[in-house]
């Protein structure tokens, strides 16, 4: 099943939630919509599900016009951020709900429904909770039940709204791995919304980065990390050092210091230089494009993080391997191994 | 709900002592001197006794003042039986109507956004802020012989005022807010996510309402119905205006109590009154039970 949206626009009052969004999701993909809150990602997901309606634009599911159908007819599995489990029903009845409300003509008989629910509870590894009520479950368990409930109707596509947003860090990491494995097993075309870049990069086949109702970049996790298309993407994904630079005559200047960096085809004017923290290589003083004095050094697991005051006055943080000896007070040279310069 | 108890290491006795001292200090800050406490409690008890318990006792005392036989005889009077029957009928009609209206109004207000929503919420409260006598007069103005619809009704031989329809209408109007008021905050708190989930799972509007919305608010509905019923059976002012006091026909229980009392038939008056008092007691007990269920039901399934 493919999902395609074309030139989607949605406003809430004066707020533009979606500002001309085009996206195509191929069959069997697991796509992450990544962006800060207010970027329109949840609105996009809800429109695809039929829970919201766009002001203009098209939504095609498997090539058919989905906007001609209500949420009920779209046959879309939707997992809510806060689970939205039916609190007065047992786990079993929650999962069975989608099967029980089917029109009589296609409804399975009781035995088949029981078998299907059992199968789904096995799939999410929670068959032992069948008789509990949602209020008696932990957050992670509720989320898995919500997923089982959405899968019960054999949805054409699966949409997950911040599926792990309300969970604590450890459970979130476990569920991420579990979701990826599950997707490999059932391979239903899926979109999930997240504001957590790590989650998007770890789980998705493809990442769609959104900001202010627009898509900034679509690419593989490696792609959006290594080749960010815009300043926003570079700043949003991964930790970046951002320095204001001046581009003139094909050279790049930081303050009045010329940097030995290629300006690419950039137009002259104020620009911003983006470098990943771990892409700043430390060398002896005088080497590299920058020079600076180390203020503090702290260790973060496999890396050490140094706060460096550049000779131009700016303070940056860099990550270096632990075996590299860095001491507060030392003067060092810094060379960006990879960098991007964006106009503006 | 899983409860996790954190064991934070062994508690030493010095810790315990320090904690006990702290608790003591806190308590003495929070409590008044004993004498003050006794006076305050005594005032509260005396007030309750004079204004609540005593009237209730008096009602039953007067009702039974000539013995149980007289009490039962008073209730068995055709006039009394007619009043009881009419009261039950009117309560059933107005509770039924208000159950439907209240559910629909609460559903619309809690689950949808539309222009004029605030106005609707204010409108729902109107019967609470208007004197019941005025509510009754409104119906007289509408349906009375000189009223706007009076002529048309007479031409078609439809009797509304001084008959069951008028009493039912007035009662329905006065008791309208109860169900809606009980449900609006409950439904607003529960939000629309469960309904959205149900629809995305393929449920129709009716299936969503009966399988998801209604079970979630059932205690609230019962609560609203209970209060609505108590008021419907006890309503005096509005009903008094539209009833016409036709003996054996359009007198409800509260109206009959007044008439009998005015005629110095104290045992009969208080016998009927005792039934209303029992209704009040039963309502109170049921209300307490329902409130407990409502609190339990609000145990949030997400946080």
Describe the structure.
- The complex is a heterodimer of chains A (344) and B (303).
- Chain A is α+β, with helices and mostly antiparallel strands and 344 residues long.
- Chain A has helices at residues 41-49, 71-74, 91-100, 110-123, 139-152, 169-186, 197-203, 221-226, 231-236, and strands spanning 3-12, 15-25, 30-34, 56-61, 64-65, 76-79, 157-161, 189-194, 206-211, 214-219, 240-248, 251-254, 257-259, 269-276, 280-283, 290-300, 303-310, 315-321, 331-336, 340-343.
- In chain A, the strands form 4 sheets. Chain A has a 6-stranded mixed beta sheet, sandwiched between helices.
- Chain A is elongated.
- The mean pLDDT of chain A is 90.
- Chain B is mostly helical and 303 residues long.
- Chain B has 14 helices and no strands.
- Chain B has helices at residues 13-30, 34-63, 68-76, 78-111, 117-129, 132-143, 150-155, 164-175, 177-190, 193-200, 205-234, 237-243, 253-262, 266-297.
- In chain B, helix 4 crosses helix 8, helix 4 (78-111) packs across helix 11 and helix 8 (164-175) packs across helix 11 (205-234).
- The longest helix of chain B is centred in the N-terminal third of the chain and has 34 residues, at 78-111.
- Chain B is flat and about 90 Å long.
- Chain B starts with 12 loop residues before the first helix and ends in a 6-residue tail after the last helix.
- The interface between A and B is medium-sized, with 36 and 22 residues.
């Amino acid at each position: 099943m493919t999902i395609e949206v074309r030139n989607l626009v949605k406003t809430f009052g004066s707020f533009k939630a979606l500002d001309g969004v085009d996206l195509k999701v191929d069959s069997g993909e697991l796509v992450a919509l990544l962006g800060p809150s207010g970027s329109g990602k949840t609105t996009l997901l809800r429109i695809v599900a039929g829970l919201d309606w766009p002001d203009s634009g098209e939504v095609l599911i498997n090539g058919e016009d989905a906007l001609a159908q209500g949420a009920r007819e779209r046959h879309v599995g939707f997992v809510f951020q806060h689970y939205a489990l039916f609190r007065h029903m047992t786990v079993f009845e929650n999962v069975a709900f989608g099967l029980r409300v089917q029109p009589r003509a296609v409804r399975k008989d009781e035995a088949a429904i029981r078998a299907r629910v059992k199968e789904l509870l096995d799939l999410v590894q929670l068959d032992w909770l069948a008789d509990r009520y949602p209020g008696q479950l932990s957050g992670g368990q509720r989320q898995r039940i919500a997923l089982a409930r959405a899968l019960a109707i054999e949805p054409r596509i699966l949409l997950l709204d911040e599926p792990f947003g309300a969970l604590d860090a450890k459970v979130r990491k476990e569920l991420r791995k579990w979701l990826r494995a599950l997707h490999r097993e059932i391979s239903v075309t899926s979109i999930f919304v997240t504001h957590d870049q790590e989650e998007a990069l770890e789980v998705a086949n493809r990442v769609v980065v959104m900001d202010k109702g627009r898509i900034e970049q679509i690419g593989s996790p490696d792609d959006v990390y290594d080749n960010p298309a815009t300043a926003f993407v570079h700043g949003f994904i991964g930790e970046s050092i951002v320095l204001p630079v001046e581009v003139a005559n094909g050279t790049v200047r930081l303050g009045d210091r010329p940097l030995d960096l290629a300006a690419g085809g950039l137009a002259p004017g104020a620009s911003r230089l983006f470098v990943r923290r771990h892409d700043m290589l430390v060398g002896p003083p005088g080497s590299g494009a920058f020079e600076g004095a180390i203020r503090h050094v702290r260790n973060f697991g496999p890396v050490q993080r140094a706060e460096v005051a550049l000779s131009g006055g700016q303070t940056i943080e860099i990550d270096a391997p632990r075996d590299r000896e860095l001491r507060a007070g030392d003067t060092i040279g810094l060379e960006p191994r990879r960098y991007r310069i964006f106009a503006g | 709900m899983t409860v996790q108890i954190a064991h934070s290491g062994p508690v030493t006795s010095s810790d315990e002592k320090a904690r006990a001292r702290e608790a003591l200090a806190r308590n003495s800050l929070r409590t008044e001197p004993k004498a003050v406490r006794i006076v305050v409690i005594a005032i509260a008890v005396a007030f309750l006794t004079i204004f609540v318990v005593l009237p209730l006792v008096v009602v039953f005392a007067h009702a039974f003042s000539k013995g149980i036989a007289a009490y039962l005889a008073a209730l068995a009077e055709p006039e009394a039986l007619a009043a009881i029957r009419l009261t039950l009928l009117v309560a059933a009609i107005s509770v039924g109507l208000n159950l439907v209206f209240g559910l629909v109004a609460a559903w619309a207000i809690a689950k949808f956004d539309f222009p004029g929503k605030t106005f609707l919420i204010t409108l729902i409260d109107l019967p609470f802020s208007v004197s019941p006598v005025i509510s009754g007069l409104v119906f007289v103005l509408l349906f009375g012989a000189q009223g706007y619809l009076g002529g048309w009704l007479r031409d078609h031989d439809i009797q509304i005022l001084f008959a069951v329809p008028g009493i039912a209408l007035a009662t329905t109007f006065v008791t309208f807010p109860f169900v809606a008021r009980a449900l609006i905050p409950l439904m607003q708190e529960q939000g629309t996510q469960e309904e959205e989930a149900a629809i995305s799972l393929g449920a129709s509007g009716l299936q969503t309402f009966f399988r998801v919305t209604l079970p979630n608010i059932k205690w609230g509905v019962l609560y609203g119905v209970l209060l609505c019923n108590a008021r419907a059976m006890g309503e005096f002012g509005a009903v008094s205006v539209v009833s016409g006091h036709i003996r054996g026909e359009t007198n409800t229980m509260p109206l009959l109590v007044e008439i009998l009392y005015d005629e110095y038939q104290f045992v009969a008056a208080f016998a009927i009154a005792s039934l209303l008092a029992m209704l009040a007691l039963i309502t109170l007990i049921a209300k307490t039970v329902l409130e407990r269920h409502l609190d339990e039901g609000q145990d949030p399934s997400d946080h």
